[in-house]
Design goal:
Layout (H helix, E strand, L loop, with lengths): L10 H4 L44 H4 L4 E3 L5 H7 L5 E6 L4 H15 L6 E6 L4 H7 L6 E6 L2 E7 L4 H17 L20 H11 L3 H14 L4 H17 L3 H13 L4 H13 L3 H14 L3 H17 L4 H14 L1
Parallel strand pairs: 1-3, 2-3
Antiparallel strand pairs: 2-4, 4-5
């Protein structure tokens, strides 16, 4: 779902940030699942600090989370938190290399603001409703929330200097609207639920760029819990990332030429479907495989069908494009 043509908001445009006309998220219904318990209050030495931080916070304050994984349990709490501290939502997906890189960069940048901004990482595959709430069109997308109202910041990759310019302007707008709190002095910042050990092992491997190890961790998780939908989706995602890892831009162009000239070449069609899905051209990727299945029979047809199901898991089974593709698959199969 990433958009190659998307660009970050320029520093000049950042000065136009305001709350006029922003959609109010505070009216979204609180999920039935209660949020995890909040961390213990900060010690008496906690303070708002400065943009770069002076390292003088006490141990309790230093443990305040500056990144939270947004999910169904804590989303409403994060929206409510935005009345006191700006919350920067990054809507991302593990299948998008741009997303994972930007998330790592944002973690470092937000840390330097010493608790005056909270980073909420929202995996749109695990929580597609959030993508709908923000009406996003590309992955990754960064949206700030102040007082329950979203302020779009940028889509796609952004340089650190551009990010800092936007966040500096965000803090000015926040101050003008009385949003001047700090995580270092908050006792109610929602935290994500504990990550299962094998899932954490997979996350760590992904961050290290070891997709084979991540896939192995997810396979082990599925062996222990066959109904683990997150592990199933994670496995499909890291396998896709692993397949794309060694494809250079010239190779991708050659594969596209080959796929156009050889519509019945299974390997070429699957490779381009991978590239399409990873680049956000979801319907194109799905339709390519469905067309191949409709034209071919035997083992190759089954291989293509299995790959299509895996890509459904990558995009998310609740995505409307998956539902549409399932109908297309049924038509060519039956």
């Amino acid at each position: 779902m990433s958009s190659p043509g998307s660009r970050p908001v320029s520093p000049a445009a950042a000065s136009q940030l305001n709350l006029r006309g922003a959609v109010d998220l505070s009216s979204l219904r609180r999920p039935a699942t209660p949020p995890p318990a909040a961390p213990a209050p900060a010690g008496p030495g906690a303070s708002a600090g400065s943009g770069q931080g002076d390292g003088t916070q006490d141990a309790g304050a230093a443990k305040r989370p500056l990144r939270v994984d947004a999910n169904e349990a804590n989303f409403q709490d994060l929206v409510e938190l935005s009345a006191r501290i700006p919350v920067l939502f990054l809507l991302w997906a593990r299948y998008s290399p741009e997303s994972t890189t930007l998330l790592q960069n944002l973690e470092q940048v937000v840390e330097s603001y010493d608790g005056r901004i909270v980073l909420a990482a929202a995996d749109v595959e695990a929580f597609p409703q959030l993508a709908d709430a923000f009406r996003i069109e590309a992955i990754p997308t960064a949206v700030a929330v102040l007082g329950g109202r979203p302020l779009p910041l940028f889509q796609g990759p952004a340089a650190e200097q551009e990010i800092r310019a936007l966040l500096d302007e965000l803090l000015k707008v926040a101050a003008e609207n009385g949003v001047t709190g700090s995580v270092r002095s908050e006792s109610s910042v929602p935290e994500e639920a504990p990550v299962p050990p094998l899932h954490q092992a997979a996350f760590d491997a992904i961050e290290a760029g070891d997709y084979a190890a991540a896939a192995q961790a997810y396979r082990q998780a599925l062996a222990e819990q066959p109904a683990d939908r997150e592990a199933k989706a994670g496995l499909a995602q890291v396998e896709l990332m692993g397949r794309l890892e060694s494809i250079t831009a010239p190779q991708a162009e050659e594969l596209r030429r080959q796929a156009a000239q050889e519509p019945d070449n299974l390997d070429a069609q699957l490779a381009i479907a991978d590239l399409d899905v990873s680049g956000g051209h979801i319907d194109d990727g799905f339709n390519r495989i469905i067309t191949f299945i409709g034209r071919n029979f035997g083992p190759e047809r089954e291989t293509a069908r299995v790959r299509l199901l895996e890509l459904f898991d990558v995009v998310g089974v609740a995505d409307e494009r998956v539902a549409k593709a399932r109908q297309g698959l049924a038509r060519v199969l039956f």
